[in-house]
Every structure is written in C-alpha cells, then in structure tokens.
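Appendix C reproduces, verbatim, an entry submitted by the partner laboratory led by Prof. M.T., so that reviewers can inspect both the input and the predicted structure.
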Amino acid sequence: MTLYLAIDPVSGIALPKGQIVGIAETSAGLVSQGFSAQTYRGNRLSTIDETDSSVWDNDCEPGWYFDGGSVQIEPPQTEIQRLKSGFRAFHQQINNWADGLDALSRGQPASKVQAGHDWLYFAKYAGFLIANNLTSAHSGGSPTVRSVNVRIGWAGAMAQGALNVASPAQFYADVNEPNAPTTPISWRNLSAPYAARSLGSATIIHIADGAPDIDTVDLATGTWIEELTG
C-alpha cells in the first residue's frame, strides 16, 4: 500500500528531506487531517510503499523524518554535518594507520618508519585543504571549489587506502622511503570515481594549496574538522 507523507522543512536541509508531520492512505486523507493541498504538494508531499521494509518502518509516526527515500527516527544530516562526519572518518583512519605503523616500527629501519608517517601526515594536510576548498591547480592559484558530495567522496576513498597500500604492514612492504612526500598528496583521484593511485610512484597526486600556516592547524586531533562551515 502507498502512504502519503506531509513533510515540513528542517533548517539546513533541502526538501524533500524533512520532518514527517502527517501520514495518510490518500492525499485527500492528509487534507482531511488539516494539511492543505496548497501547502503540502510538490516536494512537501511524498509517497512511500509501506510494504517495502527497506524504506518504511511500521513504528513510523508524525515526528519522524523523511530522508528523500525512506523514513528514519533521527533527523537527516545537514550538508555541514555530512562533511564533518566524512572527514572525521578520514581522520580516524589515518590515525589508525599511524598507530599501526608505530606498532610495527620495532621491526623496521627508522627511515621506513619516518617515510610511512610522512605519507600519512601529508595526506592529513591534503584532507585539510580539500575539506576547506583550499586547493588550486598550481601554487598561488585560485582555489578549486568542490561540492560537499565531492569532498566527502574523496575523504571516503582516501580512507580505503592506495592502490598498493591499504594497511600498516603494506606501508613497510611497498613504500620506497626516498619517494616519501614533502608536500600535500592524494592517493585517490580528486573527483569521481576517486580511482586509487600507487604510493611512491609517478601517479601520486601532489596538491597545490593556498592554506594558512599549517603549523597553526591541529592536524593531530583534527579539531579543525569541527570548524568547517561549508
């Protein structure tokens, strides 16, 4: 059976995502509940198949939320919340790899340990630049503005690892320390499909930036992520 949903907007979230304020078996049923057809139409009126458990929850009632395709009890995330969440996951994965490098470091020469951490540091540096739209085609150039979805996609792809390195052990097995970076780098394409590149090869992407003094940015704990505004 198809159900009709009356949707109210939620601050910071574009319709048809929003809060469910009315549910009925027909659009006329919504009108009879007091939801004017003049207001609850277009992207403020949605339908959903209540027999499809992938989009509908039988516990759903007014006060729940519609994310554009399915119902949920929690409000949809705003773009800024999604951006922050994506880069928190990226930052945590980089730190997890760094912890793994340290755990294995007693069996490696210092140069390889340092090279592994340099790759991770300059990936974090790149993350700061990408998240804040501070990258450019060349040093000193105009910033390349990327959408929230593109930046989130890049962060998620980076967290999956490079073509030849996706674990701390592989950093030691595959990375050639003389090729460790000295500038921000990406081991994934900067836009969809975010294809993986190899570390220590000519395919790695070096990122030009227009950032402030990076020493003023807390790359260790990632507190800068909470300051993202768009």
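The helical segments are 27-32, 79-104, 110-131, 148-158, 168-174. Additional entries are available on request from the coordinating office.
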